[in-house]
């Protein structure tokens, strides 16, 4: 048991409050991992935070921006990177307080595909994903990253569902 | 973090060698849990081993038995209980060697239903299930307890697939 156990945690921003706030489900998944797995045994674990940014979801994620030249888009991407970095900062700071080693990085693409690709590249011992606990009707529209990862990631996956008392009125919000 | 983390591990017998031998996938799931989660932190975890026995799968699980009276069936059930206990003994002994607390018990019924029912009753922090890693064609015939638990158990579930080099020639064997 010389080597540390490497736990990859997929994190994303709050869909209600946006960057740099973590979604309720990523925050829950992180806190569960610390409380139930890492506990005081901080030297035995390493957390690997992966944040996947979806490129240009609708092309207008910020109403006060005007895109008039390729440079504007570059700036936008640059700004997104910064906002993503602030999201990761939240988790890295928490780990620093607790005293557990961590790494964090950003990738771009379809979250479910990118997470599985990063698992293949980085070989974590297991993957933790938060889940909004949507009903079957809502799943049709928003898809579920967690279900895809459980099926396709090349490592064990543990899905942490949001607690019922943390679910917003519209459970698609997170 | 005063309370220990309670990990339920569903275990079954080897389909090739029978009782008291654990299946490759339950042995793998147990060893993974010790190596990657418990590690040396034995005082922080408690393992709860659940073995579900399927009653009278085909009515003839032992060719040298003749059932001629209700008492014969009682004796068979008694013998099954003993064989199940020997399976659990394997895991309890291992925990004892390692120094991690555990409990183990047997229930009867459809494994996937009983596991989810026991999760509801016992409230483990999470559930570990082994999986034979069957292809879609094989799944149709043997069903997968792990997929059912991932969907229906009222706690986080982590599925540990068998390593490729431990898969028997016919992957349905375990």
From TrEMBL, chains A, B:
CDD domains: USP_At3g01520-like
Pfam families: Usp
Domain of life: Eukaryota
Gene3D superfamilies: HUPs
Protein name in the entry: UspA domain-containing protein
Domain UspA: 22-161
GO MF: AMP binding
